[in-house]
């Protein structure tokens, strides 16, 4: 695929400044390994974008750089019109992150954990916000239970509550439904869709669950070996590869069959 438009940096940026994320020529080196290699993309406000790729494709490193947690070797990042990491302090309160692989303190109760994160984000009327999240995400029965005594599904709902505590304009998700049963995973997806619709939020979603991406995402960015392999809507990508599902496309890309299938 010709990624000329994707790799053109900020030249394609909306003059009204409507992009939630703008990334240009982003590169991250770990000694001689290029974890992220000259990646550029622009994500419109209010959209849900899937970031796909196998293990080691560069998805998590890209998200970490967008959050300002990892410094890029080169390239530029703007989040909600602020340069990252230079202006991170101006924007961190307007974004949040969720991953089932990042545990909250196990000995603290759910309420205590949410209180701490709420204070970090300077959330106003924090007890009321926690009560609202407990109601929305069905946390009431274990709100005062230690986090370490929760099931995987309960921990995921708590992690989502933490990610939503500050009403983020931008939500970054890394495998948000990993290890969940189908019912709980479906519940999480529906809540994310509702949150985006009700708040006009932007969501960047890294996932290995192709059905999840097909359901949630307006756009898919496929990464391989630190570079962008393809970037389009799910339907257009599946049509271009002549495949019925994103999972089949994913396998083509992972196994190097791109030149045989992509038009």
Domains counted in the coordinates: how many? Answer: 2
Q: What structural category do the secondary elements indicate? A: alpha/beta
Strand % is 15-25%
Helical segment count = 10
- Classified by CATH, the class of the largest domain is Alpha Beta
- Calculate Rg over CA atoms: 19 Å
Task: Name the helix and strand elements from N-terminus to C-terminus, one letter apiece.
Answer: EEEHEEHEHHHEHEHEEHHH
Spatial sequence of strands, sheet with the most strands: 6-7-8-3-9-10
Helix content: 25-40%
Count of strand segments: 10
Spans where pLDDT lies below 50 across 5 or more residues:
1-15
Could you state the CATH homologous superfamily of the largest domain? P-loop containing nucleotide triphosphate hydrolases
